[in-house]
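Q: Here's a chain of 198 amino acids. Please give me its 3D structure as tokens.
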Amino acid sequence: MHKLIPFILHFEAGLPASKLSLPWPRIFEEARKSGFSNDPHDAGGATLCGVTIATLSHYRHLRGLPAPTVAELKALPADTWRDILKSLFWDRWQADRIASPEVARILVDWVWASGVHGIRIPQRMLGVKTDGVVGPATLAALNRRIATEGEVFANILTEERLRFIDRIIARRPSQAHYRAGWRRRIQSIRGLPITRTK
């Protein structure tokens, strides 16, 4: 997961590569400066470094806490942001049990960016039940596919993710102005040319 953190902050907050090697939580504090948005064209609404107000609400609900305000989202602590990434996205894919770190990063970033579609579409590709829940059958099918196809399967996932954003834009043409950035992110995750942080 450590390699995914600077990648996400780079794309969600526009954090320059020169700041991605900063220690945690300083890297997050730098990202916070440019990482808040409330774009009316973005279905996610108020967002800080990729965490939407709805995601933070869900995270807090699971912990028996009241729904957050936008001000609380803006003031989100660094360690809470990281725990959201781990508990709601990384662990949702059981990424520590995926045989390929590269495939794990692709899948976790997909569910981070696209919600349950980032599980159901890969499940359909794997020929397992598309219930949006990563259980033993999904993990077994995924690791078998990695064992037999390796990097080829990472390519297949990347291409399917690119087709997915094209389908989003076909349904909602207002999203077309995000296309170049979405494609750059999806293609960049393969190389992860981002400095690792802890």
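Q: Can you summarize the key feature?
A: The beta strands are 36-37, 47-48, 51-52.
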